[in-house]
Protein backbone atom coordinates (compact mmCIF):
# COMPACT_ATOMS: atom_id res chain seq x y z
CA UNK A 1 0.00 0.00 0.00
CA UNK A 2 1.37 3.41 -0.97
CA UNK A 3 1.58 6.04 1.78
CA UNK A 4 -0.66 9.10 1.43
CA UNK A 5 2.17 11.34 2.55
CA UNK A 6 5.69 11.89 1.32
CA UNK A 7 8.98 12.64 3.08
CA UNK A 8 11.58 14.54 1.11
CA UNK A 9 14.84 16.34 1.84
CA UNK A 10 16.57 18.88 -0.40
CA UNK A 11 20.26 19.61 0.19
CA UNK A 12 22.33 22.31 -1.43
CA UNK A 13 24.66 21.02 -4.14
CA UNK A 14 27.81 22.79 -2.95
CA UNK A 15 27.96 21.10 0.48
CA UNK A 16 30.62 18.59 1.42
CA UNK A 17 29.39 14.99 1.56
CA UNK A 18 29.49 14.91 5.37
CA UNK A 19 27.42 18.11 5.46
CA UNK A 20 24.79 16.69 3.10
CA UNK A 21 24.47 13.60 5.26
CA UNK A 22 24.35 15.65 8.47
CA UNK A 23 21.68 17.99 7.10
CA UNK A 24 19.60 15.03 5.88
CA UNK A 25 19.72 13.39 9.30
CA UNK A 26 18.64 16.58 11.05
CA UNK A 27 15.81 17.22 8.57
CA UNK A 28 14.25 13.78 8.94
CA UNK A 29 14.56 13.87 12.73
CA UNK A 30 12.15 16.80 12.77
CA UNK A 31 9.65 14.93 10.63
CA UNK A 32 9.83 11.83 12.84
CA UNK A 33 9.36 13.94 15.96
CA UNK A 34 6.35 15.85 14.61
CA UNK A 35 4.72 12.92 12.81
CA UNK A 36 5.26 9.75 14.86
CA UNK A 37 2.83 7.91 12.59
CA UNK A 38 5.52 7.98 9.88
CA UNK A 39 7.65 5.64 12.01
CA UNK A 40 7.03 1.89 11.80
CA UNK A 41 7.42 -0.82 14.39
CA UNK A 42 10.62 -2.11 16.01
CA UNK A 43 12.72 -4.58 14.03
CA UNK A 44 14.01 -7.91 15.25
CA UNK A 45 16.45 -10.27 13.57
CA UNK A 46 16.20 -14.05 13.45
CA UNK A 47 18.16 -14.36 16.71
CA UNK A 48 15.77 -12.13 18.62
CA UNK A 49 18.04 -9.08 18.70
CA UNK A 50 15.84 -5.96 18.77
CA UNK A 51 16.50 -2.87 16.64
CA UNK A 52 15.04 0.61 16.51
CA UNK A 53 12.12 1.34 14.20
CA UNK A 54 12.52 3.32 10.98
CA UNK A 55 10.24 5.34 8.75
CA UNK A 56 7.50 3.22 7.24
CA UNK A 57 7.86 4.99 3.89
CA UNK A 58 10.75 6.01 1.65
CA UNK A 59 12.67 9.24 2.17
CA UNK A 60 13.56 10.92 -1.11
CA UNK A 61 16.69 13.08 -1.09
CA UNK A 62 17.08 15.79 -3.72
CA UNK A 63 19.98 18.10 -4.56
CA UNK A 64 19.64 21.70 -5.72
CA UNK A 65 21.63 24.88 -6.13
CA UNK A 66 20.96 27.75 -3.73
CA UNK A 67 18.33 29.39 -5.97
CA UNK A 68 16.39 26.19 -6.58
CA UNK A 69 16.55 25.37 -2.87
CA UNK A 70 15.08 28.79 -2.00
CA UNK A 71 12.35 28.31 -4.61
CA UNK A 72 11.48 24.85 -3.25
CA UNK A 73 11.33 26.28 0.27
CA UNK A 74 9.03 29.08 -0.88
CA UNK A 75 6.73 26.64 -2.73
CA UNK A 76 6.59 24.25 0.24
CA UNK A 77 5.73 27.07 2.66
CA UNK A 78 3.16 28.53 0.23
CA UNK A 79 1.53 25.10 -0.03
CA UNK A 80 1.43 24.96 3.78
CA UNK A 81 3.52 21.81 3.90
CA UNK A 82 5.45 20.98 7.06
CA UNK A 83 9.02 22.18 6.56
CA UNK A 84 12.24 21.78 8.53
CA UNK A 85 15.14 24.12 7.75
CA UNK A 86 18.90 23.94 8.11
CA UNK A 87 20.88 27.12 7.55
CA UNK A 88 24.59 27.80 7.10
CA UNK A 89 24.80 29.22 10.62
CA UNK A 90 23.87 25.87 12.16
CA UNK A 91 27.21 24.37 11.15
CA UNK A 92 28.81 26.71 13.72
CA UNK A 93 26.44 26.06 16.63
CA UNK A 94 26.66 23.17 19.01
CA UNK A 95 23.22 22.76 20.53
CA UNK A 96 19.51 23.02 19.84
CA UNK A 97 19.03 26.27 21.76
CA UNK A 98 21.69 28.06 19.70
CA UNK A 99 20.32 26.48 16.51
CA UNK A 100 16.83 27.84 17.13
CA UNK A 101 18.23 31.28 18.05
CA UNK A 102 20.30 31.37 14.83
CA UNK A 103 17.24 30.65 12.68
CA UNK A 104 15.03 33.06 14.62
CA UNK A 105 17.53 35.90 14.08
CA UNK A 106 17.01 35.90 10.29
CA UNK A 107 13.84 36.79 8.32
CA UNK A 108 12.47 34.06 6.07
CA UNK A 109 13.58 35.65 2.80
CA UNK A 110 17.17 36.00 4.05
CA UNK A 111 17.68 32.49 5.43
CA UNK A 112 20.97 31.03 4.13
CA UNK A 113 19.39 27.64 3.47
CA UNK A 114 21.55 24.56 3.01
CA UNK A 115 18.71 22.08 3.36
CA UNK A 116 15.01 21.60 3.92
CA UNK A 117 12.91 18.65 5.00
CA UNK A 118 9.36 18.49 3.67
CA UNK A 119 6.40 16.37 4.75
CA UNK A 120 2.89 16.44 3.40
CA UNK A 121 0.51 14.98 0.88
CA UNK A 122 2.28 13.17 -1.95
CA UNK A 123 0.98 15.44 -4.72
CA UNK A 124 1.68 18.65 -2.78
CA UNK A 125 5.27 17.60 -2.04
CA UNK A 126 5.78 16.56 -5.67
CA UNK A 127 4.53 19.96 -6.89
CA UNK A 128 6.70 21.88 -4.42
CA UNK A 129 9.83 19.99 -5.50
CA UNK A 130 9.02 19.68 -9.21
CA UNK A 131 12.09 19.99 -11.39
CA UNK A 132 14.63 19.03 -8.71
CA UNK A 133 16.98 16.10 -9.25
CA UNK A 134 17.28 13.17 -6.90
CA UNK A 135 20.61 13.08 -5.09
CA UNK A 136 23.04 10.88 -7.02
From TrEMBL:
It comes from the Bacteria. InterPro entries: DUF2000, Pep_tRNA_hydro_II_dom_sf. This is DUF2000 family protein.
